[in-house]
């Protein structure tokens, strides 16, 4: 099917969201079947074991230049999930763009990590794999049902350094005020970066009303994450959508609210080209530091994504916040 099957309001916005030099690539990507991508779970396996296994099973795989644990293949998801290596939790099927947020957290073995919207656990398990089950991860999710799926997923992956939490993300700072070294906010979003005209389920629920509702939720989720992070800590905000209201607009709101308590840091991964964040959307002007954020435009191999790396320069806790909390409890 042609990409023009996508929602009309979305298509009307697309030329403003996408630079002209990649517009054709992006438009065509919405009707392509992308290769299946996966990463090795270092808690249970190694790239060498996975490569040998795939070769023995006559499955052609290609390494990803910018991430030594990642591979792509034209084997179907069904073919991969039928493999004993997958069932043993030795590799994890995940989009390439989705692997980037954990990489740019710059994890250290002793870190305390918050994954504020963790289910189903793709990025939580990746963080645990990178950290070799050291440090501590709090995997939080608002839905009790998704927490069950999250727990099962992480158990299958051999993750042991993670505790679970079921708290609204915007309020988690009340239990963990300025506690975490690093926080991941992989926010619920309108998923425009995953639209595919061959899969109506990927886009039929999209509306501008939904974009605006999600933007409101994302702002408070991110603010809660910042308040739960230590001074000097890092917060990664990511979405799999193209909408500036859910991306740069959310970061601008945080800059307006928190002032010089936070700043936006550059993002780079050797071997991977990232596009800068927008500094203008319609009549809206964003802070020039938004160029430090990263946009990954949909392509033949990658889904659309947005990532911002936030450094916490000073405390965002104020006495009034605790007074309000105490009054509510009283």
Structural class by secondary-structure content: alpha/beta
Order of helices and strands: HHEHEEHHEHEHEHEEHEHEEEEEEH
Kindly provide the radius of gyration, computed on alpha-carbon positions and rounded to a whole number of angstroms: 20 Å
Estimate percent helicity: 25-40%
The profile of the biggest β sheet is: 9 strands, mixed
The shape, in one word, is globular
Number of domains: 2
Number of helices: 11
Q: Mean pLDDT score, rounded?
A: 95
CATH topology of the largest domain: the name is Rossmann fold
CATH class of the largest domain: Alpha Beta
CATH superfamily of the largest domain: Vaccinia Virus protein VP39
Count of distinct strands: 15
Strand content: 15-25%
Cα separation of the termini:
58 Å
Low-pLDDT parts are none
- Tell me the CATH architecture of the largest domain: 3-Layer(aba) Sandwich
Question: Mind explaining what this structure looks like?
Answer:
The protein has 330 residues and is an alpha/beta fold. The chain folds into two domains: 3-31 and 96-329, Vaccinia Virus protein VP39 (Rossmann fold, 3-Layer(aba) Sandwich); 34-93, Sun protein, domain 3 (Alpha-Beta Plaits, 2-Layer Sandwich). Helices cover 34% and strands 22% of the residues. The strands form three sheets. Strands 5, 6, 7, 8, 9, 10, 11, 14 and 15 form a nine-stranded mixed beta sheet that branches. A four-stranded antiparallel beta sheet has the order 2-3-1-4, with helices on one face. Strands 12-13 form a two-stranded antiparallel ribbon. 41% of the residues are buried.
